[in-house]
Amino acid sequence: MVGIIDFGSQYTQLIARKVRELGVFSKIFPYFVSRDELKNVEALILSGSPKSVLENEYPDIDSEIWEMDIPILGICYGHQLISMHYGGEVSSGKAEFGKANLEILKKDSPLFFNIPDNSTVWMSHSYYVSKVPIDFVVTAKTSSVAIAAVENEKLRRYGIQFHPEVFHSVFGLSIISNFLFRIARVNKDWNLRNFIDCEILNIKEEVGNEKAICGISGGIDSTVAAILVRRSIGDNLKCIFVDHGLLRAFEREEVVDALRSLNFPITVLDRKDLFLNALKGVADPEAKRKIIGKLFIDVFYTEAINFGAAYLVQGTLYPDFIESSGGVSGIADKIKSHHNVGGLPKNLKLKLIEPLKYLFKDEVRVIGRELGLENKFLNRHPFPGPGLAIRIIGEVTEERLSILKKADLILREEIAKYDKENKIWQGFAVLLPIRSVGVMGDIRTYNYVIALRMVESTDGMTATWHKATYELLETISNRITNEVKGINRVVYDITSKPPATIEWE
Question: Is the peptide bond before 265 cis (omega within 30 degrees of 0)?
Fold first, then answer.
């Protein structure tokens, strides 16, 4: 097992996912973990952090862990922590966010085996190592950071200022692979088939003969979660599809038909009025998410009482968890409240089953394929639980919902014809809270603006904007401005994640 020490980075679970992707079992531990809890760990990776080692009480691992005779790799904050612990120095004032070119100074470093010079890496830091510890050597630099990587081969301590776990670091996976197999020499013996079997057993043991309800949306996450629980407890699971009035055009019909094709007994609840009335006058995105999350729980709780259920099943993924809370160590910045995490009441009267809580979207798709799901589920673009409420910037009204549904349908129709290789991980339209002047049929208009968003990703934690063809963008823009009353301008979002999130709210 490889242990990942969480210091509050947004990418901690991404490190663990990359390790698992390479066929090695990994587990995340809080930074205050004891040495005894790490007795089965063969190597450690220290994550980044929103904190600084220059703070008076900075997060650190137990002193006994530093004495363990196992390899340790520090990433960003972890790199600075290693340098500080062994007598180096860290300074502030050299912030760097985005891509950088890595120049490898120590060509025989095992960490950089077969890594080409000037490969692209991703930086995200405000502090840097300014003095190397005794007996450590600098192994790489960038144009702005003289000490981008350090190592002490005797102690098997390695530090890198950049983030190899993110998509933007081109040879990042190879660097992690070098640490695992050339330095730590761990075994490649982990796969998601093991996860399925273990999770079904865990759910059986936890739930026993009790009943559970599952809020199912037709997306890959809730569908896979429902299948796992159904294989564990059979008819003691009841699946509920809630139409909250914030669905895309024809979504309800498509989802219900698809789910029933799996021989899932689905209870469909129409609660459009309940949700739309509660959102009247609400413009703040966090308030919208929390209102929707609470209403979902209210609906599920009522159904649970009627069914006699003690458990609620959710398709929560790790990106939902990490963006909504403080992560494993409780110190990560909250990015936004996901309805199935940040919207949950503190006095929740149902016990949660979240079998996918520490997985990413691409891993869930692999599990879905193992479970026999068809491509219509596997390749479905992610759709947030709060639905179009968080794609309407500002207050949700019937008029704005109608406009966005029509524009979004056009976008989805054109993507379906254009993206035959499923390169686009997620594509959607956003209705902006501004109006712009236009000319249509020689008449002045003052209408809404639609923003198009198409991204490529593997896990949802990082993403790059899709380089759509001009022909596609022109077709979508022409169709929306011609077919959707109330829109006279279309723009395209070309921002990656980070610095943006995928959704606008």
Answer: no
* Radius of gyration for the alpha carbons in the chain, expressed in angstroms and rounded: 24
Residue 165 annotated in active site: yes
Query: Of 226, 229, 220, which is closest to residue 240 (Cα–Cα)?
Result: 226
Residues 263-312: tens digit of each pLDDT: 878 999 999 999 999 999 999 999 999 999 899 999 999 999 999 999 99
Cα 112–chain centre separation: 28
From the candidates 76, 153, 323, 466, which is the catalytic residue?
76
Tokens in use for 135? Answer: 């007996």
Instruction: Exactly one of 79, 125, 151, 163 is catalytic; name it.
Output: 163
Residue of 165, 199, 251, 323 with catalytic role: 165
Given a contact cutoff of 8 angstroms between Cβ atoms, the answer to whether 132 and 147 are in contact is: yes
Confirm whether 239 is a catalytic residue.
Answer: no
DSSP 13: H
In whole angstroms, give the CA distance from residue 448 to residue 481. 10
Query: Alpha-carbon dihedral of residues 302, 306, 311, 316, nearest 10 degrees?
Result: -50
Can you tell me the distance from the alpha carbon of 318 to that of 359, in angstroms, rounded to the nearest whole number? 5
Residue (of 169, 229, 171) closest to 371 by Cα position? 229
| The residue to which tokens 């349908």 are assigned | 409
Cα-based distances in Å from 121 to 103, 144, 148, 353? 10, 13, 10, 37
**Between helices 192-207 and 361-370, what is the axis angle to 10°?**
80
pTM to 2 decimals? 0.73
Nearest to 15 by CA among 66, 76, 61: 76
The per-residue pLDDT for range 225-267, each reduced to its tens digit, is 999 999 999 999 999 999 999 999 999 998 888 888 888 789 9
338 as an active site residue: the answer is no
